Amino acid sequence: MELSDYITWIFGIIVAVLLGVVIYKFLPSSFQTWFSGFFSSITSGLTGWGTNAVNGNTN
Asked: How many folded domains does the chain comprise?
């Protein structure tokens, strides 16, 4: 990959993050609480699955 490709990738990521933040700010508070609960459940599920896999339990 050339340097310009990396710059394009980084610029795209920055724009995507900024758009996400702006959209999140304009959402109603009920949506914000739903999103935060949704993401926290995903992260807790992933970490729980990871620790179970490390302990030899794949359920």
From this structure: 1
